[in-house]
Specification:
This protein has 9 helices and 11 strands. The chain has 2 domains: about 120 residues, no CATH class; about 150 residues, Gcn5-related N-acetyltransferase (GNAT) (Aminopeptidase, 3-Layer(aba) Sandwich), CATH 3.40.630. The chain is an alpha+beta fold. The chain starts with 19 loop residues before the first helix and ends with a strand. The protein has an 11-stranded mixed beta sheet, with helices on both faces.
């Protein structure tokens, strides 16, 4: 179902580190809690909506021009992406009046007739992601092997007084500049289930990252370093802080997503995670629907 680009090696085999359903559901629950936990007036203003379909969840942020948060995920062997589910989710996207939405589906739970389903609903292949998973205890034992943090920088937990600065650094670095998007992130700081971290230089936040705890599994969420402060160990420091936070929260597993490497490319974030015990679970395509 996932064609190879020329010269690319695609590994779609699964690891047994994290149960597939838990991995996918932890990711979509993190996104859903991130946007739907915003205050009601902000949800109304930005057109934030959500739908639960068993373990599958869908969310929309109508006023975000990036369309990044318009997505559905959480499919597993008990709730595959069959025609009935896709129909209900497409109807949700239409009802929310969004121009597009993405279906995040692990390749092993695509039904045999997926090609026909995709054609029927006009779904096309979009961005690709590597799904990663690890055992938390094993990763925590290796965090000291990560690159050291520049001595001029420090890493720590984000408290409420830094919520606004942290949110602006996160959302602007990712390119979410529509008014109100930073307020979504700000409202997330300190919410149950979340841990937010930052790297500071003096009094300025220069890198950010979070985890979302979903029972036995934690999701790496929103790691970003502001331009001009990269290659100084901030990413590694945030990775270590979040692994140890997952351990402290009693999580058994962690999951993350990374952009796959094209031939000749090197993704430091991917290799940092692989270096402390994350495994490639599978490569996943985002199947895009357009109104």
């Amino acid at each position: 179902m996932i064609p190879r680009r020329q010269g690319e090696e695609v590994d779609t085999t699964m690891t047994t580190v994290v149960p597939l359903g838990l991995a996918e559901q932890t990711e979509i629950r993190a996104y859903a809690d991130f946007v739907t936990g915003a205050p009601a007036p902000l949800r109304e203003r930005l057109g934030i909506g959500s739908l639960d379909l068993g373990p599958v969840r869908a969310i929309t942020v109508r006023e975000d021009p990036s369309r990044f948060f318009n997505r559905a995920g959480g499919f597993d062997v008990d709730r595959p992406a069959d025609a009935e589910a896709v129909d209900a989710l497409v109807e949700f996207f239409r009802t929310q009046r969004v121009p597009s939405g993405a279906f995040m589906i692990a390749p092993s739970v695509l039904p045999p007739d997926w090609a026909a389903i995709a054609e029927k609903f006009g779904l096309t292949e979009g961005a690709r992601f590597v799904k990663l998973g690890c055992a938390v205890e094993a990763a925590a034992a290796k965090v000291e092997s990560l690159a050291p943090l520049d001595p001029l920088l420090r890493v720590g937990l984000v408290e409420q007084e830094h919520a606004r600065e942290w949110a602006v650094a996160m959302m602007t670095t990712f390119g979410f500049i529509e008014p109100g998007m930073d307020e979504i992130a700000e409202a997330c700081v300190g919410r149950p289930g979340w841990r937010q971290y930052a790297v500071w230089e003096a009094e300025r936040i220069v890198a950010v990252g979070s985890i979302f705890v979903n029972g036995d599994c934690a999701d790496m969420f929103g790691g970003a370093t502001v331009a001009g402060w990269r290659r100084r160990g901030a990413q590694s420091a945030l990775l270590a802080a979040r692994v140890l936070a997952a351990q402290a929260a009693g999580c058994r597993w962690m999951v993350a997503e990374a952009v796959p490497e094209a031939p000749g490319e090197h993704n430091p974030s991917l290799h940092n995670m692989l270096g402390i015990g994350f495994e490639r679970m599978y490569e996943r395509v985002a199947w895009n629907w357009h109104a």
